[in-house]
Amino acid sequence: MPKKATLQKTKELQPLEREYQSSRGYWQAIIDCLDDELMVIARDLCLTQVNAALLKRQGSTTAKVIGRHCYEVSHGVTEPCQPPLCECPITRVWDTGKPVRVSHTHLYDTKGKSRVRYFDVIVSPLRNSRGDITEVVELIRDVTEVKRLEQQIREANQNLLALNAIASTVSQSLDLDTILNSALDKVLELMKGNTGGILLLDEESQTLSYRVYRGLSKEFVQEIDGLRLGEGIAGRAAQLEKPIYVDNISEDPRLTRSVVIKEGLRAFTSVPLRSKNKVLGVMNIASHKVRRFTAEDIRLLNNIGNQIAVAIENAKLYNEVQRKEEIRGEVLNLVISTQEEERKRIARGLHDETSQALTSLAVNLEAVIAILPSDADEAKAKLRGVQALAVKTLDEIHKVIYELRPTLLDDLGLVAAVEWYAENYLEAAGIKVHVETDGLERRLPAQIETALFRIIQEAATNIIRHANAGKTSLSLEFSETSVAVHIKDDGKGFDLDEVMRTKDSGRGLGLLSMQERAELMGGHLSIRSRPGLGTRIAVKIPIAQEVADGRDKGISGR
Ligand SMILES: Nc1ncnc2c1ncn2[C@@H]1O[C@H](COP(=O)(O)OP(=O)(O)O)[C@@H](O)[C@H]1O
Ligand SMILES: [Mg+2]
Known about the structure:
Blueprint: H1 3-21, H2 24-32, E1 37-41, E2 47-50, H3 52-58, H4 62-65, H5 70-75, H6 90-96, E3 100-110, E4 113-127, E5 133-142, H7 144-170, H8 176-190, E6 195-202, E7 207-214, H9 218-224, E8 227-228, H10 232-240, E9 244-246, H11 259-263, E10 268-275, E11 278-286, H12 295-371, H13 377-404, H14 407-411, H15 414-426, E12 432-439, H16 446-467, E13 471-478, E14 482-489, H17 496-501, H18 509-520, E15 524-529, E16 535-542, H19 545-548, H20 553-556
Parallel strand pairs: 12-13
Antiparallel strand pairs: 1-2, 1-5, 3-4, 4-5, 6-7, 6-11, 7-8, 9-10, 10-11, 13-14, 14-16, 15-16
Helix pairs in contact: 7-8, 7-12, 8-12, 12-13, 15-16, 16-18
The structure holds adenosine-5'-diphosphate and magnesium ion.
């Protein structure tokens, strides 16, 4: 065709083309591009129009579906839709003239397996130019996948909440039985059950026994005691380190203990409690009624099991540390009291033998000097020198004796011993001391007096050796339930962190020993010091109530 003629033809066709676009074909194209299924339904519920999505799902053709009832085509049933699964929205649209939205649940039977699909259905009225409803348009959206995802999110959320609840339950205590009891209660609450228990693995015998349980008879728990790894369901779960669940344990061939049948248990699940690849026990959740544990339940229980295992491990470690701490305290106490006894013995030995021998030496020398002839001046002078040496040595021996074990402490108590010590050591070293007491001054248990005296002794020695102080103050405060001591100096101070960090052998041990002694008495010692600003040491030791009340007379006696 010549070019000019073609153009002419196209021009003529343009209005027709526009008409075509507004025609049925154009609208069909629009409805066919929809992903959702669409049907146009007449008053008699017969289809007048459908889109490609519907034909595709039905595997049908337009010719085969037009004129048939919507319920036949859509659901393959011979009766109109009925509530509750499928409420028919169409009559409501005809009645009200308003769009209606409903959700439909369709059950399919494919190869003997029933499947469920969910649909959102929106039906809107189609009106003519006068505004009368002539037909309705039904839009059907398959929301099965969305529902499945929603369900998954809901379950994941519930699981997270459950795990969170367990985590906060088990983290509230470090006591093993408290943890296990509260964890079990929480799990049963989550599983909406009332029967179950936690068995722990005895490392030595490698057997499992119930530690906590609910809804099980005593007889059952006793009979199950000492379950070997690999034995029964729980033993297997522990050995395989995998959860096991059965619908009816009473009929399970793996059963080894008949008490399970007697107990009337049916649904049963056992999950290992694993921490750091080590099985610490198992958790059993059971039911006397038929019940199904879903794969989701088992996954959740398994995760909970891991959490409980971590809590068990923590509790065990904590107990171990506590036990070691107790042993350390006992050993330290023993060392300190042995040391005190030894000091006492040496002090007594020095006093009874050395100091008495020196005293009689000095006295005898005096006597010898007295009876020497008056012209023996040289001999007298020499003897006087020897006698002075004996007296001086005696003095030093007394100091040593006092350092070792001040008799004043035993005889007159802490305040007198501290006053004597301050005067003879601090004042003697040129440091002014102010000693003051406050409260109900009284004798305290020997252990407390000794601990406080040794702390003051160490603090005073440090002041003399390191502080370069001009003044110190020592205060002792007695209250009903405690005794507190404050030792202050105006010396050069020091950096406590730096002292504790240094690896100098021995440096810092004096400060540590003060702390240890206070803590052994159930008390507390704090050191505050800064270079240039002096040092303050505060100790507080509780006094047991029976002692404070004076009920226990024995303790304060020496
Ligand atoms: N009152 C004090 N004034 C200044 N420095 C102090 C005082 N007490 C302790 N120190 C510092 O703390 C260090 C640690 O004291 P300590 O543990 O008793 O060990 P040591 O006396 O054997 O050095 C001392 O070496 C000293 O530097
Ligand atoms: Mg020291």
